[in-house]
Amino acid sequence: MATAELERGPSPEEETFSVVEENEEIEDEPQPPKIRETPEDIKQEAIVNTLAFHPKEDILAAGDIDGDIYLYSYSCTEGENKELWSSGHHLKSCRKVAFSSDGGKLFSVSKDKAVHIMDVEAGKLETRIPKAHSKPINALLLVDENMLATGDDEGTLKMWDMRKGNAFMSLKHHEDYISDMAVDLAKRTLLTSSGDGTMGVFNLKRRRFELLSEFQSGDLTSVSIMKRGRKVVCGSSNGTIYIFNWNGFGATSDRFTLQAESVDCIVPMTDSLLCAASMDGVIRVISILPNRVVGSVGQHTGEPIEEIARSQDGRFLASSAHDQLIKFWDISCLPNTRVSDYRRRKKKDGRLKALSSKAFGTRGDFFSGLLDSNEANGEEEEEESDEEGDGDSGSD
Length: 396
What we know:
disordered N terminus; 4 helices; 28 strands; Methylamine Dehydrogenase, Chain H; four-stranded antiparallel beta sheet; WD repeat-containing protein 55; repeat; disordered C terminus; single chain; mainly beta
């Protein structure tokens, strides 16, 4: 009997205890960090008006309606997005932020009429121009290392020499707010878009105003130079994209109407592709000449988008909207996108093509059918408009 007891195996209770110990050991082992396709969303306490990517590092700046500026490092490793610092120096809504070309300085303008320059590494305010304009400032553009352009709510453009800290040019030719600005590679011609429905042309070398374009229906909300400097593209509040020939700024050479409530901001992806954000919360990819809606990279469902920005490596697009979220979208595939001149028949359901895994329709988004059906309602009209504007056919 004694020998039989010695040879007895472990009891059921002992086996259970052993399994529990093994499971605990497995749980105690460190799990590898989860790598995402894009960085996680960043939740804000207020609506973010403006975004800017650092030119060399994985850093994003955001300015909100309370006047606060935040600097984040972002990563595709889950849990690795970090707030580096925040600043509350602006007294009112921060309208625009922009990094210097070396990434060492962060410029910002505000409804409080001030221009601020901050040290990016230290997060400290270096320079403050308290009454840069007599009206709230809405637009900001770094022309080069020493030259800064600002535009205000009443259409005044100012050019600043940052070495001296004063404005060397102040011109008012717009009747409404300046929404956006762009400059050519030679730094000779500055373009402005305005709420009065015109595009302004300014000669920086001669420090003078050149001309205003013809009036368009609706506010011009954004301006970009594309097609290797041969075309200028403007977004508008009525959902139309206006195209100008370089040195033909007086009248549009083309126009392209989207089935969107507005085109509030545009960011070029390539010489021929741009991303356009709208009040309907959808970020569309648009081909310019041939004029096409290529698809969508993402959306803030039902929330107006305030700003989109492209990362320095061209991998991500960041967007901010009234849902108080900063979202990241994978746009790495866009440079390889080819748009044929041949127009294929549209699908009957009129769905926008999803160009990223997070775009609507790919994750069972409840509102995707509604958004897509809105697109479908006028796609035949949109195609007819495209065909009329696929070449430099002149203004209609």
